[in-house]
Design brief:
2 copies of one chain form a homodimer.
Chain A lengths: L4 H9 L9 E3 L6 E3 L5 E11 L10 H19 L2 E11 L4 H17 L3 E9 L3 E11 L14 E5 L4 H9 L8 H12 L5 H6 L6 E4 L4 H12 L2 E5 L7 H6 L4 H10 L6 E5 L4 H9 L5 E8 L4 E5 L2 E2 L13
Parallel strand pairs in A: 4-5, 9-12
Antiparallel strand pairs in A: 1-2, 3-6, 4-6, 7-10, 7-11, 8-10, 9-11, 12-13
Chain lengths: 325, 325
């Protein structure tokens, strides 16, 4: 087993498949040297995953790598940015080559798919955790921010919501699950979120605001409302639910809807669209193969109101908070 | 005590003093949106500090923040880059407001000094550690890399070497130290390294290669030699030693020299200069107030040879390696 930090880094991280032309100097010097295209903003996002908090120690390192990268790429997607580069800070309890090899397998498979080049990072000894910083480009004036929603805009989400929380329940054995096919579907949805990279770029010039759902729809939509200084109404019966989620809830649609409202780590996009852009939206998204569902509307106010058939609901819900007891 | 992650982030990290004009959107959205000047490369570096490995749990959070930022800025300095932005991923065992307040005090003091804006990051719960990604600019063709050294180039280091290791010995009580003024000097040198940001920029167009000393002179010079495919000779009697280091070693210059060769976390620059640039070097550095000392010369070969009065020494030395037993 290699015991030298530099050997480890050189062996596993210098062999990446992606070589971008905008990377003048990658791993191996004090800094990477990079080229940002003229007329574009650089978009940057950082996410940490800590063992025992964000994932279990026995998680397959390949899935962990993919999920970490997906979570970061999802932030670029939510900005409408095109991914370009990633830095990886990896803290490991020991220089476990089998673990590293499997981690790199997953990491580079996803990096290759999205044409993202690893440009640097750090490998340190300590409790297992990883921090990724992804960077991408978005043409000037076309970034999807959280502060652009206006009263009257329609609220959409991509894909289905709630599967990730159901997958986590299966994983933690909180829910008995006798259907192995259903369990596998939900676990897969929890472990392998698909960042909506193409959909995010398709929303440039169409959506008035956007973010990705990492802490639960209600908590995340709250960020748009706060920063845009608006309120919202959500029709809970319009939330997109997978048949698998409803089956997982034993056919209890109400329970499934609650999961859809609060499930974190979905990495679907939540975005707002002015009425006059709704036609363009359908065309733009049809090219990406991503389904979007209208779940409500922005209104004057400061919070999200849940409704059913025009009647307000008084459900108590909360998002995910790392520091809550 | 605040228990909400978003409150914490908002309260402590959104109140930073630096507001750069090249930051279109900073903390609070999915990504930061940034502007890289035309004609410049973006330089990016990532460093992690893990409690128990890189620092002790009782370390003053303000000093920790400064040291982390200094270590990262040192990588930009070694590239000849001008610092611009930093992302901070902070993992904390608990939402300790006193700790966070003190951390931010140190962090923003140094960020302000170097005009570096915090553009984002992540706050997670777990074993104490932090990962910083700094970014800066360097004009096209002027970056100081590790692969440009040629046989005949002279080898320089900034400042004095060895103090950081001596300070660590004082800290760990490995060395009895009866002189409190000396102990304080060395501790300060260990805790508060000065990144050579201005010196690095002054070396553009003058140095043929450069890096910063984080793992010890011999280990780090080895990176230049490997990537430049050259060897080197170091005259050990030319190594710049502080009087305090020599005093710490009880007047034993030999012991001080060995510390200077292997001491990590010095964050001084080691660089090579072609003979015809030596005059320009003195002028350029005089404007920065940083002293540089010529310690040897690049030669054909593949490793560094230690000499004294032209005679080769057979000292056994090694650099710092996180994963060694």
């Amino acid at each position: 087993m290699a015991s030298n930090e530099f050997d480890l880094i050189a062996r596993y991280f210098a062999r990446q498949p992606v070589q971008r032309r905008d990377v003048t100097l990658a791993i191996g010097d004090d800094c990477a040297l990079l080229e940002v295209p003229a007329g574009s903003h650089l978009a940057v996002s950082t996410d940490s995953l800590v063992c025992g908090n964000h994932f279990l120690p026995e998680m397959d390192p390949a899935l962990l790598a993919k999920k970490a990268l997906a979570a970061n790429l999802s932030d670029l997607a939510a900005m409408g940015a095109t991914p370009a580069w990633v830095s990886l800070a990896l803290t490991l309890p020991e220089a476990d080559e089998a673990w590293l090899a499997r981690f790199c397998e997953g990491f580079f498979e996803m990096a290759d798919y999205y044409q993202v080049q690893l440009i640097g990072g750090d490998t340190t000894k300590g409790p297992l955790s990883l921090t990724l910083t992804v960077q991408g480009f978005v043409p000037h004036g076309q970034a999807l921010t959280r502060h652009g929603a206006s009263s009257g805009d329609w609220i959409y989400v991509t894909g289905c919501l709630g599967d990730s929380a159901a997958g986590l329940s299966v994983l933690l054995d909180q829910a008995e699950q006798n259907d192995p096919v259903l369990a596998e579907y939900l676990l897969n949805r929890h472990y392998q979120p698909q960042p909506r990279v193409l959909a995010g770029q398709a929303l440039r010039g169409i959506a008035s605001s956007a973010l990705d759902i990492s802490d639960g729809l209600i908590a995340d939509l709250g960020h748009i409302l706060t920063r845009s200084q608006v309120g919202a109404v959500i029709d809970v019966d319009n939330l997109p639910l997978s048949p698998e989620l409803v089956a997982f809830c034993g056919g209890d649609r109400e329970a499934a809807i609650r999961m859809a409202l609060t499930s974190g780590e979905e990495y679907e996009l939540c975005f707002t669209v002015p009425a006059h852009n709704r036609g363009t939206l359908d065309v733009a998204l049809s090219h990406t193969g991503v389904k979007a569902t209208c779940i409500g509307q922005i209104r004057p106010g400061s919070s999200a109101v849940l409704e059913r058939n025009g009647q307000q609901l008084d459900w108590q819900l909360r998002g995910y908070d790392h520091f809550s007891g």
